Amino acid sequence: KLFVVGMAFELPPLSYSYEALEPYIDAQTMNIHHTKHHQTYVGNINKAVEANDILKGKSIEELCAAASALPPECATVVRNSGGGHWNHTFFWQCMAAPGSTNGPSAELKAKIDASFGSIDEMKNKFNAAAAGRFGSGWAWLGQQEDGTLVITSTANQDNPLMAGIAEPCVPLLGLDVWEHAYYLKYQNRRPEYIANFWNVVNWDYVNGNLK
User: Fold this and answer.
1) Longest dimension (CA), the chain
2) pLDDT digits 0-9 by tens, 92-105
3) Three-state secondary structure string covering 165-209
């Protein structure tokens, strides 16, 4: 779903309340993160599209995929704000109320076992990628063209859709490790936030992303 109204991108509604992810992600953080931070990315990418004909008529996925080939003045805003819009739209769907989803499907579990050895080992590698991302960025579980799974991380609002910028894969799961995603509750305890993220993963959505 592209969340485009006319020629403009739009802040997507959440499928759950801001309180739904408590106690692992607090309602105040969710409210600010969604209505302020994500809304800012939406506003800025819309301004860029309006001002640059080369960006008009493209979905947010198409803009991300073209980021490395765009003129520098367009590439920066697409990476920062276009990436921010896509990443957050994806991130919200990666989460659900604790205990409300059924865990990895048999197909996903088999892929995880084949690629990492076990679900616990996949989580360990994902947690390490998220904790080890210096400054702001994202951690991703993705699927490569040959079907194998990979864990990667990106800086700022870059994502695996951005050919030539990030390691290419189809994202299955993503985690925001910008401080605005966790600081009110966890302060500098990023590893605790990362560990608690697994309590709110929407495995039904992750399963559906598998090709």
Assistant:
1) 49
2) 999 999 999 999 99
3) CCCCCEEEEEEECCHHHCHHHHCCCHHHHHHHHCCCECHHHHHHH
pLDDT in tens, 11-36: 999 999 999 999 999 999 999 999 99
Supply 86's token pair: 């896509």
Q: Is 99 helix (H, G, I), strand (E, B) or coil?
A: coil
Using omega within 30 degrees of 0 as the cis cutoff, is the peptide bond preceding 104 cis?
no
* 117 pLDDT higher than 90: yes
3-class DSSP state of 71: coil
pTM for the complete prediction? Answer: 0.95
By the 8 A CB rule, do 20 and 97 touch? yes
β-pair partners for 170 = 143
Could you tell me the two tokens for 136? 């702001």
Burial of 135 from C-beta contacts in 10 A (0-12 / 13-18 / 19+) = exposed
